[in-house]
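Posting this for the archive.
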Amino acid sequence: MGKRVFLIVMDSFGIGAAADAEKYNDANSNTLKAVYKSKYFDAPNLIRLGLFNIEGVDFGQKADTPTGCFARMQELSAAKDTTYGHWEIAGIISKKPMPTYPSGFSDEIIKKLESVTGRKCLCNKPYSGIQVILDYGEEHIKSGNLIVYTSADSVMQIAAHESVISLPELYEICQKAREIMQGEDGVGRIIARPFVGRFPNFVRTQNRRDFSLPPPKDTILDLLDKKGYDTIAVGKISDIFSGRGIDESIHTSNNFDGMQQTIKYQDKRFEGICFVNLVDFDSIYGHRNNVDGYAAAVSEFDTQLGEFIDNMQKNDILIITADHGCDPSHSSTDHTREYTPMLIVGDSVKSNVDLKTREGFCDIGSSVCEIFGIENTLDGKSFWSQVKKDD
């Protein structure tokens, strides 16, 4: 079996305020430190790989001889969101911020959306995703109108009760919204937010779907796909990259399912990349300021990580990273501008190599290029030569 890279993104698992965090009002953010303080934090496998040996992590238990190589990653894109974070991991630095709507969407946008969907819009302002269905859910059920809202990120979110608007219709509505939100209004994602239940016990379901802008140029997925390598997406990776450069995709219901699906791929024959997003850290715990829940989710992941590492084959390489922060102890519920971890391990990888601080998440994509010996047209500089074992 040929080389296989498993690239796992712990969505929002930041490790401390980035050098430019003050510009984002995130000067004291530190997702890792927040969850480390919880009694529910237990991550022996991440510790062994070198999580607390990373430059700038001045707390926690350092491994005497980490089994992996490790680095602190500085984002260069002008954002702290999922889309730009993943695009940068995959090799694209985005210098221009995507549009945000702190006062809600313009009348022109709302009129276009109402015209193409045949439904009126409710809310139209930044809102917590849980609170918005509590405040507008009953009105939505009575009227059939769409709950349209945004956040500090470049997103348009559309919530609907599954008994009022079917999932196929909601996805079609979001696709129409995606067609509207282009050019200067090209938000990173249109997000379908279905929910069920009765007031006040409305619950968002696991049928969320993201409709992203396509990346502006080739990513590591495109480059590998063009060279005939397998490109597998687990979780919302396909949504983030608008399906581009992806051969096979599986949506998952939660973090546990995401890791179970990834572990199953270890027993399948493929040569290429398995790109994984674990979104619960961000969506369920970070945005809801749930420190203990976040810590417990990291611990659950760590247990599955141990199973994954035990099952790695000779030509497998595992890279663990994150796309931004979402400090659950922060004063807001928004993403936080943080450094992210990079841990890499495998039979072909040295142990205990400190790569210090890397400028650009894109160094990961460039390293994957070098691992597979393909021409690197991505942003970033490879670190593969520093961590690979001598042949």
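The CA atoms of residues 110 and 121 lie 7 Å apart. The chain has two domains: 4-94+216-387, 107-212.
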